[in-house]
Amino acid sequence: MGSFRTFRRFLRPEAVKLALATRAVPEGDLPQDFDPESEKNLDRIREGVVDELCGLFEATACVSSRSKLFKDLLNREKKAVTAVGGGIALPHVRTLQAREFVMCFARSIEGLPFRAPDGESVHLFFGMVAPPYDDRTYLKVYQHLASFLIDPEHVKQFLEADEPGVILRLLDIFR
Hints:
Layout: H1 4-7, E1 11-17, H2 39-59, H3 66-79, E2 83-85, E3 88-89, E4 92-94, E5 102-112, E6 122-130, H4 135-148, H5 152-160, H6 164-173
Parallel strand pairs: 1-5, 3-6, 4-6
Antiparallel strand pairs: 2-3, 5-6
């Protein structure tokens, strides 16, 4: 676990999405009283992001029930916001729905309000799920990923990636 090369095995190509479908302001006709900062809209955004992340986790075949994972991940997000600031969120949960530790990556070009401590929109979502008994891998990956993303140059490279393979290579390159 000494390098990020090891982390690459947890993030599979099918679990990378460069453009989230969830939007800060939904498309279509909006009511005149629509408030993008309302709790209702913020909840809609959070649920949309969590649902898309669950789809990425499901694509890895490492989760047993997408709907149960959705509930677990959303409940975890309600307990404590996983946005860490700087445009980054690390949604994570230990759950019986995970067959093994697995990651996903999703990006929002426009940025989404996700209750970040700095009040900034979140662009990069690094999701992680692990079985309840897998504390060691889960915590180690979380710590290394968080410290890795402190560097603005690393964040910039994830923002500028133009294909899923670039995201995977970024985790190979950085140690």
